[in-house]
Specification:
single chain; alpha/beta; eight-stranded mixed β-sheet; binds cytidine-5'-triphosphate; binds calcium ion; phosphopantothenoylcysteine decarboxylase activity
């Protein structure tokens, strides 16, 4: 066996991955969005498919030229649409990975017609909070609506601030979300969004904290899948 051969260790494993950013409409031509490229989610999808998994990607807006090959792709626009698809598909999955950048807020109302500039100047945009899809998946598992052995993976894009560093914020988020693995990415200074490389930590519910050295999103994907595979029950692969 060649030392550089890709592992084929996810045969029979059903993986559902959210990728890209959501867009929250304001009127027929405008939306609130974010800079997610979808690269990390797509890299995970490609790597999982190469390792034998059956992969579905639920994708919002992405900046990737090509969809990953050998993968089912479902397109969505808003956080609510993403929530519906992920909730439905999680029931049939062994592994669910929330790599999407979900808008935390959406406009309360969507204008039927294009908002005009008018003479009075801009009106404030009232926002409401979107569902927390990752938290909802963990709650569904706790409530028995999805199988107890479903592996749930979250992402956290963090910057350090006066209250703590990237890892501190990552640990706090991990405790709040209740997922099995949290990929903590250091962002800002040109890191993560739209770039080819990622760095950070992988936190697991068994208490391990693995540093992810700066490297390609492909390498990051393979590190994440190594940890995911160890959590998938034998009967599912
Ligand atoms: N996420 C989600 N639903 C949301 C917001 C986030 O499922 N409405 C998921 C993301 O896909 C990611 C994880 O939760 O896997 C963390 O997202 P993040 O934006 O870092 O966390 P928030 O809980 O939104 O906290 P904040 O943005 O305030 O840091
Ligand atoms: Ca958020």
């Amino acid at each position: 066996e060649r030392a550089d051969a890709l592992p084929y260790d996810l045969a029979g494993v059903r993986v559902v991955i959210s990728a890209g950013g959501t867009r929250e409409p304001l009127d027929p031509v405008r939306f609130l969005g974010n800079r997610s490229s979808g690269k990390q989610g797509f890299a995970l999808a490609r790597a999982a498919a190469q390792r034998g998994a059956t992969v579905t990607v639920v994708a919002g807006s992405t900046a990737e030229p090509g969809d990953p090959a050998g993968v089912e792709i479902i397109r969505v626009t808003t956080a609510e649409e993403l929530s519906d698809e992920m909730t439905k598909r999680a029931a049939e999955a062994d592994v669910v990975i929330m790599a999407a950048a979900v808008a935390d807020f959406r406009p309360v109302s969507v204008a039927d017609a294009k908002i005009k500039k008018g003479a009075e100047g801009p009106a404030p945009i009232e926002l409401t909070t979107n569902p927390d899809i990752l938290r909802g998946l963990v709650e569904s598992r706790d409530a028995g609506r999805i199988p107890a052995d479903t592996v749930i993976v979250g992402f956290a894009a963090e910057t350090g601030d006066e209250t703590g560093g990237v890892l501190d914020h990552g640990r706090a988020k991990f405790a709040r979300k209740g997922c099995d693995l949290l990929v903590v990415n250091a962002v800002g200074d040109g890191k993560a969004f739209g770039t080819e490389d990622n760095t950070g930590w992988l936190l697991s519910s068994s208490g391990t904290e693995t540093a992810l050295p700066l490297g390609s999103k492909t390498l990051m994907a393979s590190r994440i899948l190594d940890e995911v595979r160890a959590l998938v029950p034998d009967g599912d692969r």
